[in-house]
Amino acid sequence: MIGPIPLSHVLLASGALFAIGVAGALLRRNAIQIFLSIELMMNAANLALIGYGAALGTQQGQIIVFFVIAIAAAEASVGLAIFVAIFRHTETIDVNKINLLKW
Amino acid sequence: MTFAFHASDWLLLAPELFLTAMGLLLLGLSVALGKTKEDFLAFLATVSVGITGALVAFVATRPERATPILGGAFVVDNFALFFKALVLLSLALTVLASARYVGAAPYPGGEYYALLLFSGVGMLFMASGNNLISIYVALELMALSSYVLAGYFKAEPKSTEAALKYFILGAFSSGVLLYGLSLVYGAGGVMGLPELAKLLASASRSNLLMLGILLILAGLLFKIAAVPFHVWTPDVYEGSPTPVTAFFSVGPKVAAYAILARIFYVAFAKFHADWGFVVALVSAATMVLGNVAALLQSNVKRMLAYSSIANAGYALLGVLGFRTEWGLWGILIYLLAYTFMNFGAFTLIILLESKGYAGESVSDFNGLAKRSMPAAVVMLLFLLSLAGIPPTAGFIGKYYLFTAAMKAGYAWLAILAVVMSAVSLFYYFRIAAAMFFTEGSPAKLKSSYALSAVIAVCAVGTLVIGVVPQPFLEVLKSCVLGR
């Protein structure tokens, strides 16, 4: 139960998080900052799922969040490994400077 | 939603479970063997895919598959079986086409095959996904394995860069998709596609729901590389090892079409008026941009990347035509044809590449007819099929797709598609002209058994579907979704 917090507030917070995540992913140039912004987008979805689940009176929303957390962890490990691999070549993870292939 | 697990569920999950087990085994063997016995690992991977295919055929005969399992999240209908067969076909072709390429690279081959199989498991689950969450998890399994595969040649700066771009844009799109899922979940608290369809049938149009559907659409359009979510495609296709590129151009795309069709045919059919317009615009933009940008390329891998973007635009016509049977038939027959012809074209690049030629530039195809007439003729067949010239598989696929668009009331889109197919002839012809009318290196071309087999299968598939499409169409007509 969310208790006194109305669903609309949860959704507003989640929408704001998502917007910040999208803006960060599009504007940042450091691969790790981009990745953190993407994590923010996923957590916005988690917040919305929990809020909806509580409002609808089911636990399903919270259960789905566990799947998302597990996937986010797997994504982080793959992503960081790729960042390390690219840093060994270019000594940078600034996506503007990684331009062997034209974007 | 009740959740019960029955003994017969193991049976229906057998192909996926077997492929997972073999992937783990290959991973273990890769640690134990290092850079030795690569041929054995390639053989093991091929056999695994073959046995998985046999298991899928076995599952197809079981009466238990009539009911969805795992709380309705996993369904084995004819549609799912068709896509499983297609996924396994592209997986088998990839393993065979990779053997020599990966063997020559200084990285353990076991990891490569294990990642390929894990990605295959994700795609098999996507074909059967009947619940937004199971679809999302399966999609991520496929995608995470693909990111690593793109960067498999980790000493090559281009390959790692491809992995980075694929990862960043892929993770971004899956974040968008996930947020869309959460908004759709909010509409009624259900994730299963049939339940969603039932709920939405009586639901009114709300802005949050529409936003959710649009975000899901955007996430999936990224996976099939449609404009404006296509920017990653040329870079990833150029930078990845060529067998991986060949795999990306068929396997993940085919699986993404499976879920795109299932979600939009089954769950969101009611709001067709809202998303249909968006899909029509995206399809038009994809066809135009893909074909026009392909004209400007001198790197064959990039050219084929843009050509595959254009092809994604054609296949979207089938999603639009979902009200008549033609839409689904078009998608299925086109994806079948596309798997053969596109994989075949990429295999020719592998063939040129693995003998000391870069094979990636159009000029590397110079004089191919003199070096090996069969190779040039087969490449010409794939190019004609990609352009949609009869009597090839590509023509049959386009015929069904364009008819589907006409029947759905998108005549302007069908006409645009025909015009764009004509444009595509120009760049396909550039490769053909290089092969037949330009002098090139006199060195003879040598193939391996595995590569020859892949090319032969692709060529036979492309030709047989084009000449006698009837048996294939009969199979497709048993695949029904929604309605």
Search tags:
heterodimer; A: 103 residues; mainly alpha; Helix Hairpins; B: 483 residues; 20 helices
Task: Give a verbal description of the structure.
The complex is a heterodimer of chains A (103) and B (483). With 103 residues, chain A is mainly α. Helix content of chain A is 76%, strand content 0%. Chain A has a single domain (7-90), classed as Helix Hairpins (Orthogonal Bundle). In chain A, α2 packs antiparallel against α3 (60-90). Chain A starts with 6 loop residues before the first helix and ends in a 13-residue tail after the last helix. The model of chain A has no long low-confidence stretch (mean pLDDT 89). By secondary structure, chain B is mostly helical. Chain B has two domains: 10-160 and 227-260; 284-483, no CATH class. Helix content of chain B is 76%, strand content 0%. In chain B, α10 runs antiparallel to α11 (242-267). Chain A binds chain B through residues 11, 14, 18, 21-22, 25, 31, 34-35, 38, 41-42, 44-46, 48-49, 51-53, 55-56, 58, 60-61, 64, 67-68, 71, 74-75, 78-79, 81-83, 85-86, 89-90, 95, 98, 100-103, and chain B through 1, 133, 136-137, 140, 144, 147-148, 151, 154, 157-158, 160-165, 167-168, 171-172, 174-176, 178-179, 181-183, 185-186, 189, 191, 208, 231, 234-235, 238-239.
SSE diagram, text form:
The complex is a heterodimer of chains A (103) and B (483).
Chain A (H helix, E strand, L loop, with lengths): L6 H21 L3 H26 L3 H31 L13
Helix pairs in contact in A: 1-2, 2-3
Chain B lengths: L6 H6 L1 H20 L4 H24 L16 H27 L4 H20 L3 H19 L6 H30 L6 H10 L4 H17 L8 H8 L2 H26 L4 H24 L4 H21 L4 H29 L14 H4 L1 H15 L5 H15 L3 H27 L11 H19 L2 H8 L6
Helix pairs in contact in B: 2-3, 2-5, 3-4, 3-5, 4-5, 4-11, 4-14, 4-19, 5-6, 5-11, 6-7, 6-11, 7-9, 7-10, 8-11, 9-11, 10-11, 10-13, 11-13, 11-14, 12-13, 12-18, 13-14, 13-17, 13-18, 14-16, 14-17, 14-19, 14-20, 16-18, 16-19, 17-18, 17-19
